[in-house]
Write a structure and sequence with these properties.
Blueprint: H1 2-31, H2 34-50, H3 56-63, H4 71-83, H5 87-111, H6 129-148, H7 152-175, H8 181-205
Helix pairs in contact: 1-8, 3-7, 4-5, 5-6, 5-8, 6-7, 6-8, 7-8
């Protein structure tokens, strides 16, 4: 019992860190004009570095599963959980992913940060919805994999696969030039908040 309480405390620590980082980035975007110049330079350097690689790579990564707001990946995860009679966890997956989307969208419309120049994409820039949703959903998937899959090879293979996919989704937003680096980092830390809330509730239910 004490070990579980310490584990829950660690999750609350991660939530606190994530909130501090996210709020810090948001305040910097709102009140430090210099941050945009920094972002523009970093974005230019990243896109210059990735320019030799085919442009369909970030398009595929960014569009795979996101065209319908990650509905099919969510259905897949929920189907697996329901097949194991884990109904509450299936509901929690959908709840937290949708909460991430709705709250991120509300923050976008509050901050109203313009996208990088030349970005052919509607909506505001901060935070990155793709990054926050990918971190939330696939971060939860990684937790479930580590918790339920006993085969060592598949546990670590799938954990590495989905962890890399989160990174690739985030990089694709910079590659396409539709987000700044601070937008992506803010999205990742925002998603991390909901991952830890999911884990805390799972431990409480257990």
């Amino acid at each position: 019992m004490r070990e579980r309480e310490c584990s829950v405390a660690a999750n609350w620590t991660w939530i606190s860190i994530s909130i501090v980082v996210f709020v810090g980035l948001m305040l910097a975007v709102l009140y430090l004009p210099e941050i945009r110049e920094f972002d523009i330079k970093i974005l230019h350097d990243i896109r210059t570095f990735l320019a030799p690689y085919p442009s369909y790579i970030p398009l595929f990564i960014a569009d795979f599963g996101f065209a319908d707001k990650l509905i099919w990946p969510q259905i897949t995860v929920c189907t697996v959980l329901i097949s194991g009679c884990r109904y509450i966890k299936a509901f929690m997956v959908v709840f937290f992913v949708q909460a991430t989307f709705i709250i991120s969208l509300a923050i976008k419309n509050f901050v109203c940060r313009p996208r990088p120049e030349g970005a052919n994409f509607i909506g505001y820039s901060f935070p990155s919805l793709h990054s926050s949703e990918a971190m939330c959903l696939y971060g939860i998937v990684v937790y479930l994999i580590m918790h339920y899959i006993r085969n060592t090879f598949w546990r670590y293979f799938l954990t590495l696969f989905f962890s890399l996919y989160i990174i690739l989704v985030s990089v694709s937003r910079l590659w396409k030039g539709v987000h700044f680096l601070t937008d992506v980092f803010a999205g990742l830390f925002f998603g991390l908040i909901f991952i830890n809330l999911f884990i805390i509730l799972c431990k409480k239910l257990h």
